[in-house]
Amino acid sequence: LTHPEMTDSTPSGSPTASFGPATVVLIALALVMVFSIWGLRHTTWMQERAGVEHAAQRLNANPVLGQFSRACRDVAARVQPSVVHISSRQVVPGATGRGVSIATGSGWVYDEAGHIVTNWHVVDGSSGIEVQFHDGEVRSATLVGEDPSTDIAVLQVAAGGLHPAPRVNGDLPPAQGDLVFAFGSPFDFRFSMSAGLVSGLGRSVGLLWRETETGVGYENFIQV
Fold first, then answer.
1. Number of other CB atoms surrounding residue 157 within 10 Å
2. What SS3 class is residue 37?
3. For residue 165, what are the contacts with CB-CB under 8 A and spacing of at least 6?
4. How confident is the model at residue 128 (pLDDT cuts 50, 70, 90)?
5. Beta carbons within 8 Å of 153's beta carbon, 6+ residues apart
6. What would the DSSP string read from start to end of 121-162?
7. How crowded is the C-beta side of 196, counted as CA atoms within 13 Å?
8. Tens digits of residue pLDDT in 137-167
9. Which residue, 116, 121, 128, is CA-closest to 148?
10. Rounded distance, CA 74 to CA 131, Å?
């Protein structure tokens, strides 16, 4: 025979008896939260996956990006042979005597006679100028014209085998919003190409006013 008081080995007032149901509820709530978060993430992933697939379908159906890339490559092929890299040697005084400073910049072939247009500040005071073409050829150049007030200089190299830069009709000036490309050697990176929009016209930043010896400079920049 079993004594009535011994039928339950766990006293009714013990912590296990009082907190058992609460623990089960907490575990159940935790599971619900975990599965809810997982379900939300899965739903978000499904929506993102559907968006990716729809975007891929639209891109595959519309070849405009491929056509635009091909057009950009054609612009590069058309323009780059007329873009040159300018290296200018300048003799400068130093603490131990005279030294040589190298200035670099961009330029472009103006005509088949060998005229090159560049910036005046690149060749100002130079003792020797070299022009490197896109194919790697280097030719010596002479300074034949300069205008510090507009920061423009004209060089000349030996004629022959040149590709003058294409120039648009003067009746079609740039306008705000136009897509434009820039070629040159920024930071001595030769034959770089970039693209942007014309942000504004007639900009002046006072750069030429500070750099020219006469304190006179004319600026009418295209902001890109």
1. 22
2. helix
3. 79, 82, 83, 108, 109, 110
4. very high
5. 117, 118, 119, 120, 122, 123, 124, 143, 145, 146, 147
6. HHHTT-SEEEEE-TTS-EEEEEEEEEETTTTEEEEE---SS-
7. 11
8. 999 999 999 998 888 999 999 999 999 998 8
9. 121
10. 24
pTM, rounded to two decimals = 0.69
Structure tokens at 61: 């159906």
Select from 121, 122, 123, 141 the least CA-distant residue to 131: 141
Q: Where are the beta strands (DSSP E) in the chain?
A: 83-94, 97-109, 115-119, 128-132, 138-147, 152-156, 179-184, 192-197, 200-203, 221-223
CA angle, residues 104, 109, 110, in degrees to nearest 5: 125
Give the tens place of pLDDT for each residue, 158-199. 999 999 998 876 667 889 999 999 999 888 888 899 999 999
Coil, strand or helix at 95? coil
